[in-house]
């Protein structure tokens, strides 16, 4: 692979991660700057930067060329808006912004509203075109990932508003359940299959926005709305869809975002089909090293674990956590290839000596 010459080694270690195992050390995602590092200079307007397929791909390739991708870090282009894209497939009431997408709520009255997925929706067609173009262009050079589908109740929350949806759970639950079923069964199933079909024309390995990858069906499972609700409502409105999505996939990882989501951790760990947990502490919270008892709980439940950490904390993390089924995405970008390689070698020595 052009931007990742040791990709086969990374594949072996990623396969071990999914199997709750490791090859010599924990899995790592490590970046180091190339000597000719040169950030892209932006001249295009926002719409071009978000929707011009050729521009977007050329920019991504420029960024890939700025870094050495070490250990299990693999350059991956993700098509779409990369921000709860399924909501865009169901609504044209969106506003593009630099780092996110704003979705205007469109569900006003459940008694008259019906979700509809128009296959000609411009954002779905854009995502599909991006995936198709990237698939051909990336062959032998980098990976293309699955869009940020983020299905189920999170999408309903964007189209209804979180505040009104919280009331719906109490006052009008049936339309909510029907909407999440429609999104999962009719929209996600179709879109996931279409994108995978496009991507596997040129590469058997498919990535995602987390930097993970697999040859089999895999995806990131999310439920950010769960941070707003009780364990009882989570069990009723979220868990069934999470479990069903995991059952659709060969490999799955749940994006657990922030302390308010921790009340649902035990319920998630009981999902047999769920392979892994990604822990994101959230803004203003301690980094991963500050959550070691909870992270040990994830490993003890037989799930693989993905965390992001400063390089300086990794040795302390490995004093407590098993390297088996562990992925550490290192926040620091090393100044040189030698520095990055020394870090990876030190982690390997630590894993060998501790375990």
Name the features.
14 helices; TIM Barrel; 13 strands; alpha/beta; 7-stranded mixed β-sheet; 355 residues
Note down, in words, how this protein is organized.
- By secondary structure, the protein is of the alpha/beta class.
- The protein has a single domain, classed as TIM Barrel, CATH 3.20.20.210.
- Helix content is 43%, strand content 16%.
- Helix 6 (153-160) crosses helix 7 (162-171) and helix 13 packs parallel to helix 14 (337-354).
- It is globular and about 60 Å long.
- 42% of the residues are buried.
CATH class: Alpha Beta
At CATH's second level, what is the architecture?
Alpha-Beta Barrel
State which percent range the strand residues make up: 15-25%
Q: Tell me, rounded to a whole number, the average pLDDT.
A: 97
Biggest β-sheet: count, sense, barrel? 7 strands, mixed
Order of helices and strands: HEHHEEHEEHEHHHEEEHHEHEHEHEH
Overall structural domain count: 1
Discrete helix count: 14
Distance between the termini: 32 Å
Q: Strand order, biggest sheet?
A: 2-1-13-12-11-10-9
Q: What ranges have pLDDT less than 50 throughout 5 or more consecutive residues?
A: none
Brief overview:
The protein has 14 helices and 13 strands.
């Amino acid at each position: 692979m052009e931007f990742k010459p040791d990709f086969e080694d990374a594949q072996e270690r990623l396969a071990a991660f999914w199997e709750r195992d490791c090859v010599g050390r924990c899995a790592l995602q490590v970046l180091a700057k190339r000597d000719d590092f040169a950030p892209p200079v932006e001249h295009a307007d926002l719409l071009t930067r978000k929707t011009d397929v050729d521009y977007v791909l050329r920019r991504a390739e420029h960024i890939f060329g700025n870094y050495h991708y070490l250990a299990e870090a693999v350059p991956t282009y993700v098509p779409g808006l990369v921000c709860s894209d399924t909501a865009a497939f169901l609504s044209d009431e969106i506003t593009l912004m630099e780092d996110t997408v704003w979705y205007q709520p469109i569900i006003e009255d459940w008694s008259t509203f019906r979700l509809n997925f128009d296959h000609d929706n411009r954002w779905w067609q854009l995502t599909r075109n991006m995936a198709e173009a990237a698939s051909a262009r990336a062959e032998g050079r980098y990976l293309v990932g699955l869009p940020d589908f983020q299905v189920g109740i999170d999408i309903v929350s964007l189209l209804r508003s979180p505040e009104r949806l919280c009331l719906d759970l109490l006052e009008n639950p049936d339309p909510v359940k029907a909407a999440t079923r429609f999104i999962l069964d009719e929209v996600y199933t179709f879109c996931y299959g279409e994108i995978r079909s496009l991507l596997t024309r040129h590469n058997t390995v498919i990535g995602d926005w987390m930097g993970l990858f697999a040859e089999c069906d895999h995806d990131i499972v999310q439920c950010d709305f769960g941070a707003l609700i009780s364990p009882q409502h989570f069990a009723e409105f979220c868990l069934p869809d999470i479990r069903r999505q995991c059952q659709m996939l060969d490999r799955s990882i749940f994006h657990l975002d922030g302390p308010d989501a921790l009340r649902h951790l035990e319920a998630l760990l009981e999902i047999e089909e769920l392979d892994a947990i990604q822990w994101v502490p959230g803004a203003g919270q301690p980094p991963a090293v500050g959550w070691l008892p909870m992270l040990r709980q994830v490993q003890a439940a037989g799930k693989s674990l993905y965390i992001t950490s400063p390089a300086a904390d990794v040795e302390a993390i490995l004093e407590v956590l098993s390297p088996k089924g562990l992925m550490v995405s290192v926040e620091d970008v090393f100044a040189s290839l030698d520095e990055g390689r020394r870090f990876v070698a030190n982690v390997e020595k630590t894993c060998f000596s501790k375990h």
